[in-house]
Structures are given as C-alpha cells and as structure tokens.
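Methods — Computational structure assignment.
A single polypeptide chain was analysed. Its primary sequence is given first, followed by the predicted tertiary structure written as structure tokens.
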Amino acid sequence: MDFGQFDSRKASETPRALHLKHPGTGKLLYDDEKPCHVLVLGIEGATGQNAILASQRARMDEKKESDPQTLSKIHEQSVREIAPLIVGFEHVNRGAKPANAPDDVEWFLNLQVVTGSRGQATFLEQVRAFASDRAAILGEGNAS
C-alpha cells in the first residue's frame, strides 16, 4: 500500500470544495440548483501553518489587555487565521456580483460572529472545521 496517499500536508495545499450550510438552520445552500462552495486549503499545509503562525505573532504583538476579550475581538483573530485558507468561491455572490478571493474573503467570514450556538455554525466555523478535517482534505483515497 502506498502511504503517500495519506500525506495530508501535501494534500492541504490543494483546494477542496466545502458545500456551505445555512448558518442558522444547517441546511445545505444552493444557488438555483448549484451548490454554494468555498474552496479551502487544509490547515496542515504550509499555507495553513503560516496563517496560524502569523495570527499568533499578531496576538503577541498586540498590547496585553487585562480585561477579557470581546466576542468580536476573538472573531477578528479567527478571521486572520482562516482567511488565507480560502482561495475561491463557487455560486457565492456579494450582491449582484460573484464573490472572489482574496477580495471578498474577510467580508464573507465576517457575515456572522461566532456565538457557540449548537447546530448554528457560522461560515468561519464551517471553514475552520473543514480545513481541519483530514478526511475532507485527503479525499476518498484507496484505503485498502
């Protein structure tokens, strides 16, 4: 068996299509009958690792606050980590125009704020979960 098929670091640099779900109901989203996709890189690849490192450095450079962070501030930090992993959109529009990467990525990730409500995943949470899902990134390789 060729174990190269399990190289999730390499596979993470190939965009994979995440079929978006409604952030309130969890139902899959379609534009007419076409699935609404975000093209996502995996967190284990160089791009993902560099995004996490840059976000961590930015947090260290920010002045230390003794007060608890607001939900918005935590969300902002998450957007910095996740934004570099989105490399495209399919059937996702910003008004009358198709969304494009990298211009519309932050807009897209900021459409909702993470609240922790069960069953109600923001687009940011959906992308983060997908980028971290090794099965989604590796695809359906021959495991036998």
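Note: The mean pLDDT is 89.
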